[in-house]
């Protein structure tokens, strides 16, 4: 599926707030002191390591919000593979505006490109299977929409976006309800007919309960490879199967080969390393 850009009305407030955080009470006092008001500059935003680009739209917003006279020319699209030296964008315009917006723009691009790059590596490791890499709700507060977008840019897919778009019954819910079956019955009586119900199970006995109550998806949590294979066989296509827990680039392929439909990975959005991207003035 083509990567659909995020709506401007969704990302612009995030970029505006990030700029305000950096501008503080007096603006960019360093640049204002050094760059004359009529000074123009041309800069190249380029990758400094291999990866996948993401966040260029947010960078464009950063420059335009600081000075509409700045021209931001992307040289590739989000989701494109990059190597050291690959130009992501050309930025031209008043030097004061370009240098003032530089760090905020790069923060977004480095962060989102890091998520996209990590997702792409994991997705490549399971490409020989039917499994898809999906993210979780373990996101930076207030940045969930753009971090989940970065996962899509890297070829992954999104799990639920919040508490209200799907029901996910976890161990604490089961403890309160008394059983997996009772938890599912309570949720089904509470939500609308379009809401999917997923259940996290940590044993094959709980899996039988979830299937008996016709759960839409079953999360096989922190199971061994043998138990994952047995779980997928028991499910037999009656529900979406998902694996989670201890997923790394080294273990993802073996987990995918058990036959699960999805592999959910929290660290993609809470601790993926950034992609090193720089912005340098040209002669």
Automatic annotation (TrEMBL):
<dbReference type="GO" id="GO:0009435">
    <property type="term" value="P:NAD+ biosynthetic process"/>
</dbReference>
<dbReference type="GO" id="GO:0034213">
    <property type="term" value="P:quinolinate catabolic process"/>
</dbReference>
<keyword id="KW-0662">Pyridine nucleotide biosynthesis</keyword>
<keyword id="KW-0328">Glycosyltransferase</keyword>
<dbReference type="InterPro" id="IPR037128">
    <property type="entry name" value="Quinolinate_PRibosylTase_N_sf"/>
</dbReference>
<dbReference type="GO" id="GO:0005737">
    <property type="term" value="C:cytoplasm"/>
</dbReference>
<dbReference type="Pfam" id="PF01729">
    <property type="entry name" value="QRPTase_C"/>
</dbReference>
<feature type="domain" description="Quinolinate phosphoribosyl transferase N-terminal">
    <location>
        <begin position="28"/>
        <end position="113"/>
    </location>
</feature>
<protein>
    <recommendedName>
        <fullName>Probable nicotinate-nucleotide pyrophosphorylase [carboxylating]</fullName>
        <ecNumber>2.4.2.19</ecNumber>
    </recommendedName>
</protein>
<dbReference type="InterPro" id="IPR004393">
    <property type="entry name" value="NadC"/>
</dbReference>
<comment type="similarity">
    <text>Belongs to the NadC/ModD family.</text>
</comment>
<dbReference type="InterPro" id="IPR022412">
    <property type="entry name" value="Quinolinate_PRibosylTrfase_N"/>
</dbReference>
<comment type="pathway">
    <text>Cofactor biosynthesis; NAD(+) biosynthesis; nicotinate D-ribonucleotide from quinolinate: step 1/1.</text>
</comment>
<dbReference type="Pfam" id="PF02749">
    <property type="entry name" value="QRPTase_N"/>
</dbReference>
<feature type="domain" description="Quinolinate phosphoribosyl transferase C-terminal">
    <location>
        <begin position="115"/>
        <end position="280"/>
    </location>
</feature>
<comment type="subunit">
    <text>Hexamer formed by 3 homodimers.</text>
</comment>
<dbReference type="InterPro" id="IPR036068">
    <property type="entry name" value="Nicotinate_pribotase-like_C"/>
</dbReference>
<dbReference type="InterPro" id="IPR027277">
    <property type="entry name" value="NadC/ModD"/>
</dbReference>
<dbReference type="InterPro" id="IPR013785">
    <property type="entry name" value="Aldolase_TIM"/>
</dbReference>
<dbReference type="GO" id="GO:0004514">
    <property type="term" value="F:nicotinate-nucleotide diphosphorylase (carboxylating) activity"/>
</dbReference>
<dbReference type="InterPro" id="IPR002638">
    <property type="entry name" value="Quinolinate_PRibosylTrfase_C"/>
</dbReference>
<comment type="function">
    <text>Involved in the catabolism of quinolinic acid (QA).</text>
</comment>
<keyword id="KW-0808">Transferase</keyword>
């Amino acid at each position: 599926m083509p990567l659909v850009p995020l709506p401007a009305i969704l990302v612009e407030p995030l970029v505006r707030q990030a700029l305000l955080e950096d501008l503080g009470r007096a603006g960019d006092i360093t640049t204002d002191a050094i760059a004359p008001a009529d000074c123009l500059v041309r800069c190249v935003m380029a990758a400094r390591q291999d990866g996948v680009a993401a966040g260029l739209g947010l960078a464009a917003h950063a420059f335009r919000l600081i000075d509409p006279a700045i021209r931001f020319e992307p040289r590739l699209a989000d989701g494109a593979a990059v190597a050291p030296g690959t130009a992501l964008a050309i930025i031209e315009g008043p030097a004061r505006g370009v240098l003032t917006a530089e760090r905020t723009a790069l923060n977004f691009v480095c962060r989102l490109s890091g998520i996209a790059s990590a997702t792409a590596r994991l997705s490549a490791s399971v490409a020989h299977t039917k499994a898809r890499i999906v993210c979780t709700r373990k996101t930076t507060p207030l940045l969930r929409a753009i971090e989940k977008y970065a996962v899509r840019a890297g070829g992954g897919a999104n799990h639920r976006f919040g508490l209200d778009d799907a029901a996910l019954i976890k161990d604490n819910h089961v403890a309160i309800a008394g059983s997996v079956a009772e938890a599912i019955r309570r949720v089904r009586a509470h939500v609308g007919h379009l809401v999917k119900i997923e259940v996290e199970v940590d044993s094959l006995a709980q899996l039988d309960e979830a299937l008996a109550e016709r759960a839409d998806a079953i999360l096989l949590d922190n199971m061994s490879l043998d138990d994952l294979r047995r779980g997928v066989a028991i499910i037999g296509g009656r529900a979406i199967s998902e694996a989670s827990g201890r997923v790394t680039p080294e273990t993802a392929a073996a987990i995918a080969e058990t036959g699960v439909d999805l592999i959910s990975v929290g660290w993609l959005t809470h601790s993926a390393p950034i992609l090193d991207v720089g912005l340098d003035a040209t002669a």
